[in-house]
Amino acid sequence: MIEPDFVTSTRASYNTIATGYAEMFGDELKQWPLHRHLLTWFAEIVGDGPVLDVGCGPGRTTGYLHGLGVDIAGVDLTPGFLEIARAENPDIVFTEGSMLSLDQPSESLAGLLANYSLIHIPDEVLPEVLAGFHRVLRPGGHLWVAFQVGDEPRHRTEAWGHTIDLVFRRRRPEAVEALLSAAGFDVRTRVLREPQGDELTPHAILVARKRPTSDLD
């Protein structure tokens, strides 16, 4: 299968800036108490797991949930991120891969996180990605989606002194919720917070449940 251009550019860009990114956002969870508390709650509702962090980056969220006792693994496009994630979290399995073609068996996961990782997916590809999430989650399993809120994409061509090609797609929570519903999920929790610090946009977190088979009859 020919890899889409946006996948190639996302991998190459993040591989170029992996070290700078990891250093800049190393203590991000410490600065986001609401985010941290919501992740703790997510750990409770997914129970023993297993859980997959899709687009895990340098693995900080993966490591936080692992520290709470969640049976979690991470997958990411970027070798540079995975090298950092494995070094910092030697007890967690991190795999190179794409959310467009998850290797997990159908209905094998209790939870899945797309924590600011759908932001590089074009709108026309999102239904395909969400269908893949639906396939690997058990009926009743939970999906976490976090993203920046807005209407216009932001194209970055430079970061930490390097040339990159990354498009950050901001979306409205109601639009993402509609896509989740069409994919077979029910959104159970909606959180919207205003920008803080140097942030430019509000942030949204949606937690959805894959509809149990009984709900589809």
TrEMBL record:
InterPro entries: Methyltransf_25, SAM-dependent_MTases_sf. GO terms for molecular function: methyltransferase activity. CDD domains: AdoMet_MTases (cd02440). Keywords: Methyltransferase, Transferase. Residues 51-141 form the Methyltransferase domain. GO terms for biological process: methylation. This is Methyltransferase. It comes from Asanoa siamensis.
